[in-house]
Design a protein that fits this description.
Blueprint: H1 17-65, H2 68-98, H3 103-123, H4 133-163
Length: about 170
């Protein structure tokens, strides 16, 4: 029985048994990837909420014990850490939607981490004069390197936004 097509060109002629297995494997791995992303997202939310609760409680305790300055520094440090977790959560959400990695959120996390460390170093700088000159020098080198890194990340984000293809927001679809 002929279909009117030359041999090897009819319906299903291009199908190879490996393709069926590959499609099933690909679907299974995509599903597994989605499950891992969802678990990661849930754990990031739990960690962020727990960190917010702990930071609030610790702020109230430290406010009475150590004074407003130390309590505020601790709270700022924890809030910046929460922002990092939220930015990582955004990356996970974007990856779930597009099944690809988007570089900008990672740069934002690096920027927040750098600023966080700069704030900690400058807040602790009041006692750097009390340490030996080598520790002071190392602290100033770290501050300088963090500043250069921060500027480099900002430039990278600007370049990414300028030269990236205009696309819709991967989270909202707008």
């Amino acid at each position: 029985m002929t279909s009117g097509h030359p041999p090897g060109t009819g319906r299903g002629a291009d199908f190879k048994p490996e393709q069926g297995r590959q499609s099933r494997t690909d679907r299974w791995l995509t599903g597994a990837e989605t499950v891992v992303y969802l678990i990661t997202a849930v754990l990031l939310v739990v960690a962020a909420v727990a960190l917010l609760g702990n930071a609030s409680w610790q702020f109230a305790v430290d406010l009475g014990d150590e004074g407003a300055g130390e309590a505020a520094l601790f709270m700022l440090d924890r809030l910046l850490l929460v922002l990092m977790l939220v930015e990582i959560l955004y990356t996970v959400r974007a990856s779930l939607r597009t099944h690809s990695l988007i570089p900008e959120p990672f740069l934002i996390v690096g920027l927040i981490a750098g600023v966080r460390r700069i704030l900690v170093i400058t807040a602790e700088a009041w006692h750097l004069g009390e340490v030996n000159p080598e520790e002071f020098r190392m602290g100033m080198i770290e501050l300088g390197l963090l500043t250069v890194m921060t500027v480099a990340i900002v430039v990278a984000v600007i370049l990414l936004r300028r030269f990236q293809n205009p696309t819709v927001d991967v989270i909202s679809g707008d």
